[in-house]
């Protein structure tokens, strides 16, 4: 059960009372706090005193419409995901909502399981952007995730983050599972000029191959069987932001070629679409596989491999930085509430 301190806050913006009532019932399983606004003007006024984790807003409303309100919201911050709703399916409004920074765009009446999936993804994205990643200390940083370690190996990691954060260079993070590759990606993001824009992660191993291209680039209505509505892909959602492609070694050779084309041309098309969309997105990739070996075996494109590893960092496993174990032990003890738990030399040696 979510505690009051960590409950998500969702702002519903719609000029119909029935919609607000329906969302209160629909969102009940999430145990979140609900804010309500009947117009774009009221939503903007609420944002002066509240910081919701997600905004769900109708496009057609009396007074200030949803697109005008969206423009004002994203001018203030791009770290609050905004899901736009409409009962009128028009290509122009979908494109405009995306260009203004909407996280996603859904039709009324929406499919409940799909809508819940979008909401949960948006809330997860917000949590990733809300928590910065810091290093060097772990005290008094409850709103941050912390990189722990002062070994020489970790000092090199910290130097790398500082070196690449200010640029838009492609970054490849390698290391075994559990070494903290996503933390490093988020550290680069949270110390970069793009930190006020969106951070979107994609686990390339978790998405079926036949859906991955649509997940990356989106699709137009009717582009293939089952494409009943336009879908906005992650590259389009992450415009001006940062896209983290985890498990990049799991991409098929076909998808590797499509990704390489985007990296080279800085543009892409939705599946079934004709419009050329610019890709102003910072790309960070990660893998636990040996990509050089995969290149030799013909499982990974050599041209993509060399393009990805322009800026590369390898995260050491814990067995390669054993001197950090006491620091980690004390950190986790404090996280568990044992603020003054001493560790004897025998305990540290055993660990």
Structure, described:
The chain has 351 residues and is an alpha/beta fold. Helices cover 38% and strands 18% of the residues. The chain is built from 14 helices and 16 strands. A five-stranded parallel sheet has the order 2-1-3-4-5, with helices on both faces. Strand 4, helix 4 and strand 5 form a beta-alpha-beta unit. The longest helix has 19 residues. The radius of gyration is 22 Å and the shape is globular. The two termini are 33 Å apart.
Number of DSSP strands? 16
Mean pLDDT: 88
Helix share of residues?
25-40%
The sequence of SSEs as H and E is EHEHEHEHEHEEHEHEHEEHEHEEEHHEHH
Q: What is the beta-strand fraction?
A: 15-25%
Largest sheet, strands/sense/barrel: 5 strands, parallel
Task: Describe what is shown at a glance.
With 351 residues, the protein is an alpha/beta fold. It is built from 14 helices and 16 strands. Helix 2 (40-46) runs parallel beside helix 3 (66-76).
Features of the shown structure:
351 residues; alpha/beta; 5-stranded parallel sheet; 14 helices; 16 strands; globular
């Amino acid at each position: 059960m979510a505690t009051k301190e960590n409950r998500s806050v969702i702002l519903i913006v719609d000029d119909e009372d029935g919609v607000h009532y329906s969302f209160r019932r629909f969102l009940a399983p999430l145990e979140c706090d609900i804010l309500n606004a009947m117009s774009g003007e009221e939503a903007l006024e609420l944002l002066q005193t509240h910081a919701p984790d997600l905004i769900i807003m109708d496009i057609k409303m009396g007074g200030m419409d949803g697109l005008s309100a969206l423009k004002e919201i994203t001018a203030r911050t791009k770290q609050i995901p905004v899901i736009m709703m409409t009962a009128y399916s028009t290509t122009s409004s979908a494109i405009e909502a995306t260009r203004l920074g909407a996280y996603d765009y859904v039709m009324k009446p929406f499919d409940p399981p799909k809508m819940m999936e979008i909401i949960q993804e948006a809330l997860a994205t917000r949590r990733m952007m809300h928590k910065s990643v810091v290093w060097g200390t772990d005290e008094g940083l409850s709103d941050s995730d912390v990189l722990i370690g002062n070994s020489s190996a970790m000092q090199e990691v910290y130097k790398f983050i500082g070196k690449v954060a200010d640029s838009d260079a492609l970054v490849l993070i390698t290391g075994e599972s559990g070494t903290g590759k996503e933390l490093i990606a988020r550290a680069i993001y949270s110390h970069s000029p793009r930190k006020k824009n969106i951070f979107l992660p994609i686990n390339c191993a978790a998405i079926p191959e036949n859906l991955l291209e649509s997940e990356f680039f989106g699709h137009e209505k009717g582009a293939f069987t089952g494409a009943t509505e336009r879908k906005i892909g992650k590259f389009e959602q992450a415009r001006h932001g940062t896209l983290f492609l985890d498990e990049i070694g799991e991409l098929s050779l076909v998808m590797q070629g499509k990704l390489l084309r985007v990296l080279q041309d800085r543009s892409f098309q939705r599946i079934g679409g004709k419009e050329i969309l610019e890709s102003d997105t910072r790309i960070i990739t990660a893998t636990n596989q040996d990509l050089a070996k995969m290149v030799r075996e013909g499982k990974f494109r050599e041209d993509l491999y060399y393009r990805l590893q322009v800026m590369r960092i390898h995260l050491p496993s814990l067995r390669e930085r054993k001197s950090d174990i006491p620091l980690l032990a004390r950190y986790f003890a404090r996280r568990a509430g044992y603020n003054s738990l001493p560790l004897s030399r025998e305990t540290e040696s055993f660990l």
